[in-house]
Design a protein that fits this description.
By secondary structure, the protein is α+β, with helices and mostly antiparallel strands. Helix content is 39%, strand content 29%. It contains 4 helices and 5 strands; from the N terminus they run E-H-E-E-H-E-E-H-H. Strands 4-1-3-2-5 form a 5-stranded mixed β-sheet, with helices on both faces. Helix 3 packs antiparallel against helix 4. The longest helix has 18 residues. It is globular, with a radius of gyration of 14 Å. It starts with a strand and ends with a helix. The mean pLDDT is 89. This is Blue light sensor protein. InterPro entries: Acylphosphatase-like_dom_sf, BLUF_domain. One of its GO terms (molecular function) is FAD binding.
């Protein structure tokens, strides 16, 4: 089965508590497993960056549903391409809260989120591709 990787960024409409983030993660885990969707969500104090991996048509439908979620706004796709393999195969949805400076790869992830917010590249690479490369290694 072929898979796509879809990466999007959006802005939270309010500050998310740890409980809010846990609820988002649990709902995503419950919904994504049966859809054959894996991925990771990164929160940076008001901004979300999410990687979704799965069948292209499933991701298209899922993203349309995600866009309607009232907890965020200004959603835009940064990357939506076929992939040879999943970057996050073990997780129906992982969550990394970058407000916790102990997060693995913190500096690199903050740079990716900052670049995505500003719509700029990291060197010659898009933020989405830079994000995928961080976890590919």
């Amino acid at each position: 089965m072929s898979i796509n990787q879809l990466v999007y960024i959006s802005q939270a409409v309010r500050k998310m508590s740890p409980e809010d983030l846990a609820a988002i993660q649990e709902t995503a885990k419950k919904n994504n497993g049966p859809l054959d969707v894996t991925g990771s969500l990164f929160d940076n104090g008001g901004w979300f960056l999410q990687v979704l991996e799965g069948p292209a048509s499933t991701l298209d439908k899922l993203y349309k549903k995600i866009e309607l979620d009232p907890r965020h706004k200004n959603s835009r796709i940064l990357y939506n391409e076929p992939a040879n393999f999943r970057t996050f195969p073990r997780w129906s949805m992982n969550m990394t809260n970058l407000n916790d400076r102990q997060a693995d790869k913190y500096d690199e992830l903050v740079e990716v989120l900052d670049a995505a917010q500003a719509n700029r590249k990291i060197g010659s690479t898009s933020p989405a591709v830079a994000l995928l490369k961080i976890f590919k290694n």
